[in-house]
Structure formats: structure tokens, C-alpha cells
Amino acid sequence: MRILYVDIDSLKPSHLGCYGYSRPTSPTMDALAARGVRFNHCYAADSPCVPSRAAMWSGRPGIRNGVVTHENTPAGCAFRYAVPDRHGQCPTLAHHLADAGLQTVSFTSFADRHLQGWFNFGFREFHVPSLKGGNEDGPEVNAAVLPWLRDHAREDNWFVHLTYWDPHTLYTEPMDQFEAMARHPAAAWPDEQTIERQQRDTGIRTASTLWGDNPHDGFGRSRVPTMPDNIRNRSDFEHLINGYDGGIRHADDQLAELVAELDRQGVLEETAIIISADHGEAFGELGQYMEHGSASPATHHIPLIVVWPGITDAAAGTARDEMLLNTDFAPTLAELLELDVPEGWCGRSFAPALQGQAMHLDEPLVWTHGLHTRQRAVFDGRYLFIRTYHPSWYAYPPRMLFDLEQDPHQQHDLADELPDRVSAMGAQLTAWEQAHVDATGQPDPMRLAQHQPPAAAGLPDYLERLEKLGRAEDAKAIRERLARVPTHYAPPALEPKSSSQ
């Protein structure tokens, strides 16, 4: 079996044509979706980049694999590869495939960018397209992948993984792709009124402090022409979204070259192609722009397109509505390859859905986030409950509740209006946490990380910047909020129950 897994960083499904987007961002992905099965409700169990990929490749959420934050917080970013779950051993997906005899090959600078050596486990070949740490463009990735395909595509039993970074900041696609997007209308939200309200928001990548938290980042100046200095109005927002959409199109064009090469080698119809992402991107949701910094659908909703010869043929061009997590990918792949599913993996196989069979995967999902905030969320398909363990320099309250059917952009917090629902969903989250802690016999890494404020090293510079902008009251509010975080935000520490309990 030949399998190509395309991991496109920061890719929002709502910005792809096959998911209903009106701009021409994704003709290659759209064509693949027409040949395979598209999932409308797939989410990253953990975010952003490091926790998400740890969850996907381990088949376990961060509370069990040890990775709930980014690389700058060791307490919540210690991958538990060698620690068996009480339900069994936990190899990474790549290791499991290699043990089964597949030639596992990766083309990514992810491990280099985030200093995460565990990502190499199980790959027989590991290619780093550049030493730019994820700042390379798609053609630089293809310069490494295409020669490999020319030499090896006709061989059997390979699994190739690659990462395109083009939709991730900075948007460095050719200007003609930026300009091409500008010829098409941008999404109507956020409108001028919303952007005006967001001018007093505080935090990394918010409307009036879009760039950097220290003088070395230029204190508010964009470094590329495809991105504005700040989001002051709709024109700035459209400038930003043109850059993002142009980045998606640039990645799509590179994918087209891979598809064409597989076709030239005569193996396109025999190759499984999977397209997904580590996380999405916020463009105004919870006040964040061009960022993946909260436990919200803007960050956690990811695309999933699967073309699998002999499996998806009968269901080609269909869309599925099961609620999935990226931890479900590992057991699904194992089932499709007729491999044992390690007992320590937590995901649920969605292989029947690829063949058009009925499935019932609609129980509430839990998401964990650990970059600019420390948060977990419970999502039942309509209501989203978010618990904030540490707000950093955002003004997020300890608990929030949103009705995403009525309020898809999370503008109206219903926590005070629906206290019973907040209580019930909070209890669901606590029970979920306790169950996973009991399964591993290890403390919840979020409890360890919550006392290490995200990006705390840059906070003094950020507060100084607010004061220079005439926002001394906002800087004062952040200082006061963080001073009371330990008692107002930190829930009781969860420890594994003893065998006698």
C-alpha cells in the first residue's frame, strides 16, 4: 500500500472550496475531495502545533501523552513515549507502521522548529527540507519530496508524511497569489463594528497589537507586504485574509505537483492520499487574529480529506458529519492496513465511514489548548464550554459558554445566563480529566503547566508597549488580573487515585 499524508499547518477547513468557501484557494484539494470522503467535523484534540501533532501521532490526547503546551514549558511538554498506559503499550503511529514493514518517510522541519525529537520515532527516513524551521515555502518542501517520489513512488508499502507551512504566518507566497485573492470578496465577519470593539482587546495577536511583544519585532510593524501592521478596520482585515488565502493557494499548487508526479509514475490510482492540518486559525474569534491561541473551533477545527483506493470508491465525493478527533486517525489507519490497534491508543476508528457505512460518533469532545492561554473546552455539537486555567494577558474569564448555532464567532458569553449548563459541562470536563489521570497513573500535565504563565518572558515588554500606546489602564488591568490567577483560575490539582479507591 502507498500512503501520502499531507499535513498543512494552520489550515482552516472553512477556507477550502470543498468546505463551501467561495474563493479559489484549493482546486487540487477540492478535486481530491471529489474522489474521496470529506469530514465536516474533525478537530484537534490538543493545540497548537506541538500538542496537536503529539496527539495525532500517539493516538492519545495530551493529558495522556504528556504534551499539552508548546515547547517553552517543559512541565507540560514532556512526551510520554516510554511510559505505558495502564491499558497497554503506546507506540507512535510511525513506529507501529514501521514495525509492520512499511517504509516510513517524513519531509518536515517540525522537529527542528519546535525541538521535539520524539517526532522522529518510527520514521525510517527523515528529511528536513531546510533549516528555516518551518519558514520555508512549499517549493522548498517539494524540492525534497519530488526526487524521492521519482525514485521510489513505484515501490510498494510506503507511508510518506510531509508538512507545508504556507498558510502559517508569515504569509510569503508570491504577490500574484495575494493579488488574485484580493479580486474576490472576503468573508463578511468581522464587520467594522466588531473590529472597533476589539481595539481595546489585550493579548498576543489582537487587533491593535497584532505584531510582537518586544522591541525586536518592530513594535507593531509587519515584516511582509502580505500582512498589515494592525487590524484597525475592514481594509486591514481584508489585507490579512488575502495573505492567508494566498498562502493556502500556494500550498495547494505544491500539492498539485505531487499529484502530477504520482500520475506520471503510474501509481496515482493506487495511492491513498490524506489531507489534514495540525490546527486552524483565528481571524477575530475571541479577539485573536492570525493565531491559534485558544480552545475554540477557530483553532481546533481541522480539515480531513481521505482518498483510499478500494475503500472510499463507493463513497467518493461524500461528506460525513461524525464528530472526530485527530487521535482517531491512528487507529483508523491501523484498521485499514489490517494491523492490531495498540490498547493504549485512545482514538476510535472511523474506517466504516470511509466506506459509506453508518457510524455514531457524536458524544461530546474535549479539546486542550496551551500556547498563549491554558484552556480546555467541552463541545457537544452546539454548546461550547471553555475553562481557562491561566489567561495570560487576555481578559478571558475562568469559565465561558457559547451557543455556536446562534453565535458561531463566539461573541456572546452565556455563562451567567445558563449556569446549569455551565455546571453540567464543567462536571463532564472534570470527570474526563479524572478518568485519564487514573488511566495513566500520572498527574495531569495541564495542572503542572498552569502555574507557568504562557509567554510570560515577554509580558514586561508587552505591558510597556501598551503604556507607550496610551493604554496604561489596560496594562494595569492585566497586572491585577494575573495577580489573582492562582486563586481564581486554578482548579484543584488532579492526582491519580490509589488502587484502593
From TrEMBL:
Transmembrane segments: none annotated. Residues 207-228 are annotated as: Disordered. InterPro entries: Alkaline_phosphatase_core_sf, Sulfatase, Sulfatase_N. CDD domains: sulfatase_like. Keywords: Hydrolase. Residues 3-337 form the Sulfatase N-terminal domain. It comes from the Bacteria. The keyword Cell wall biogenesis/degradation does not apply. Belongs to the sulfatase family. PANTHER family: ARYLSULFATASE FAMILY MEMBER, ENDO-4-O-SULFATASE. This is Sulfatase. It comes from Natronomicrosphaera hydrolytica. The lineage of its organism: Bacteria, Pseudomonadati, Planctomycetota, Phycisphaerae, Phycisphaerales.
